[in-house]
Design goal:
This protein has 13 helices and two strands; from the N terminus they run H-H-H-E-H-E-H-H-H-H-H-H-H-H-H. By secondary structure, it is mostly helical. A two-stranded antiparallel ribbon has the order 1-2.
Length: about 260
């Protein structure tokens, strides 16, 4: 997020800002890949450590740019569709990056389930030993997949700091990355379901903002309302964990497991 904001503020180009965010996310994810795929470090511990490191690094880099003004990116209204009551403002009155995310989700789903390359990627996640035995470079493919995921996380950060709220303050991500991680589980690792789940979680976040700014006399602390998206995340994860068959049938069989080519 901070890389995208700095580049966007310096260049005045949202496109360059998004590309910079992608590059930064990709670099951080490659560091994670090196630790977990090459050095065989624990994935959960490495991810948590890099998350804490990233928070501190972004605060350090962004210190000179805190609260610096940036021009907002105008929404791109879809003619006719944007005028539909309720649905129009919710779906067809967003910035271009939101529409790009729809195309990206559909393209990712097609790649994973309709292309030979996607089949190989899924095979590497399901049965890496089998994929290795038939000659596929398991580690290289996993590196590429992790780099792609990091780049997409960078796009998300760029959206927050350049499109959603065009400013930078330390801690502005506010744990949304953990919600995104829970969203993957909620969507049972299906890209198109992620879109629906994102709107569900986004609706909860929008609802708490609406309740805080509506002026309604609600005897509920603002801090409690702000916690609603995170409470919803916990509820969803608990509900899914009570049905282990969902995880067994949909999660990659080798999720979180290290792979050694010489094993």
């Amino acid at each position: 997020a901070v890389t995208a904001f700095v580049v966007g503020l310096s260049s005045g180009s949202p496109v360059l800002a998004v590309l910079a965010g992608m590059a930064a996310g990709c670099l951080m994810s490659l560091l994670f890949a090196f630790l977990t795929l090459t050095m065989l470090a624990n994935q959960v511990a490495s991810g948590l450590a890099l998350s804490i490191f990233g928070i501190g690094l972004s605060a350090f880099i962004g210190k000179p740019y805190e609260s610096a003004p940036m021009d907002a990116v105008a929404p791109l209204r879809v003619p006719v569709l944007a005028d539909i009551p309720v649905i129009g403002p919710a779906l067809f009155s967003h910035q271009s990056l939101v529409y790009f995310s729809w195309v990206l989700a559909a393209g990712t789903a097609w790649f994973l389930y309709r292309s030979r390359a996607g089949l190989i990627v899924r095979a590497v996640g399901e049965a890496p030993s089998v994929a290795h035995s038939v000659g596929y470079p398991v580690i290289a493919i996993r590196y590429a997949a992790v780099a792609f995921g990091g780049a997409m996380a960078g796009v998300s950060g760029a959206y927050l700091s350049v499109y959603y709220t065009p400013l930078w303050t330390a801690g502005m991500i506010a744990g949304r990355g953990w919600i995104a991680l829970a969203l993957v589980v909620f969507a049972t690792w299906r890209p198109l379901r992620v879109v629906a789940g994102a709107y569900l979680f986004g609706g909860v976040m929008t609802a708490q903002l609406f309740l805080q700014g509506s002026g309604l006399r609600i005897e509920v602390p603002a801090q409690l309302l702000s916690s609603l998206p995170y409470v919803a995340t916990i509820v969803v994860l608990v509900a899914i964990s009570r049905n282990p068959s969902i995880m067994r049938l949909n999660a990659p069989a080798s999720l979180g497991q290290p792979f050694r080519a010489d094993a």
